[in-house]
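Example 9 (inverse folding). The structure is encoded as follows.
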C-alpha cells in the first residue's frame, strides 16, 4: 500500500497530507506549509476501535477515522517533493502498521485553492469500525479505556483543543467530552462485552 501511494503521488510535485485528528496536534513529519482545509464527502468520527494505543483487548478504546458522507474541516500540510518519500514512510509507520485505514488521495479546498491530499479513511465494512454507539457506551469508553499512548478521553480532548487552535469547532466532539465529564450512572452503563465487539481491531 505504501508503494502504491508513492506511485500515485508520482514524485514530481509537493506532497499534501490532510490532518483531521491527531495529525493536527502531533504531525511528526516536517512540512513547509499548513493550510486550513475542508474535505467534502467524508466526516470525522470517533468510531474506530483501538485495542493497543488508546485501549486494551479487555477494554477497547476509540480513535478518529474519516467515514464517508458529509464534510470535514481540518488541516492540509505541504511537504516538499524532495522530502515527501521520507514523510510518507514516517506516516505509514505511524498510521498503517496493520493497514487498518484506506488511504485515499482526495480533493481538499483551501484558502489558496484546491489541493489533492492524502487522507486516511475507514470503510464501514472494516472490523475496526464500531458502528453506531450509544451515549452509555461512549461514556464508559471515555471514562475507562486506556492504552500504551494514554486514554481515549485524553486523545479526544487533545484533538478538540488542536482543532480549536486552528479555528475549528467540532460540536459533536464537544458534546462527547461534556458527556464524559458527567457523573456516571451505573444503571445506564453498557452491558455489551466491548472486547468481543472490537473483534480483530488491532490499533
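The amino acid assigned to each position is listed next.
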Amino acid at each position: 500500500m505504501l508503494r502504491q501511494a508513492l506511485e500515485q503521488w508520482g514524485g514530481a510535485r509537493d506532497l499534501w497530507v490532510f490532518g483531521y485528528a491527531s495529525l493536527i496536534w502531533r504531525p511528526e513529519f516536517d512540512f513547509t506549509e499548513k493550510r486550513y482545509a475542508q474535505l467534502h464527502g467524508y466526516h470525522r468520527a470517533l468510531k474506530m476501535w483501538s485495542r493497543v494505543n488508546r485501549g486494551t483487548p479487555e477494554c477497547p478504546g476509540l480513535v478518529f477515522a474519516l467515514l464517508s458522507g458529509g464534510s470535514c474541516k481540518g488541516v492540509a500540510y505541504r511537504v516538499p517533493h524532495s522530502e515527501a518519500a521520507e514523510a510518507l514512510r514516517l506516516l505509514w509507520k505511524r498510521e498503517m502498521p496493520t493497514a487498518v485505514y484506506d488511504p485515499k488521495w482526495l480533493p481538499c479546498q483551501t484558502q489558496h485553492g484546491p489541493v489533492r491530499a492524502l487522507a486516511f479513511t475507514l470503510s464501514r465494512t472494516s472490523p475496526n469500525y464500531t458502528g453506531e454507539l450509544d451515549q452509555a457506551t461512549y461514556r464508559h469508553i471515555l471514562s475507562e479505556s486506556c492504552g500504551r499512548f494514554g486514554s481515549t478521553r485524553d486523545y479526544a480532548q487533545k484533538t478538540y483543543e488542536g482543532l480549536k487552535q486552528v479555528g475549528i469547532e467540532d460540536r459533536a466532539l464537544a458534546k462527547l467530552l461534556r458527556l464524559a465529564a458527567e457523573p456516571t450512572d451505573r444503571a445506564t452503563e453498557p452491558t455489551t462485552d466491548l472486547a468481543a465487539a472490537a473483534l480483530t481491531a488491532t490499533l
